[in-house]
Amino acid sequence: MEIEVTVNGVVRGVEVRPHETLLALLRDRLGLRGAKNGCSEGECGACTVLLDGAPIDACIYPAAACAGRSVTTVEGLAPPDGELTALQRAFVDSGAVQCGFCTPGLLMTLHALLAERAAPSEAEVRRAIVGNICRCTGYAHVVDAVAQAVGARR
Ligand code: FES
Asked: I need a surface site. Which of 103, 112, 140, 154 has the fewest CB within 10 A?
């Protein structure tokens, strides 16, 4: 079926196949490879993108269900001039990017959290990222990065 979906602020008309996932549409046909294919079961969070501002697992979300809606991927976070967001900069500065496989998903989850909560507590940060598995950082650097980003916004 033909759908229109807004991806990173641009309205795209795309033909989607039955059972095609949003992750497959983004990565394989729209060339947006930021969201990663980790478990393919909606468990690891590496594929997290925002749908109308809310984090979802793109690997299990039907592309057809995105008709008329707005998808944001990690490629859409930074402004066109390429300057990193405060959260992205804080990830780099805090050592929260190690192998990087989880990083796009974590950024999207935390971007949504910070849109709702200007200064989340450590417990709120840890609760928000419970669905984003990171094998490298032990999560402490991620929590530090959020604190740094919140401080930079003050
Ligand atoms: Fe390697 Fe998170 S930085 S899995």
From this structure: 154
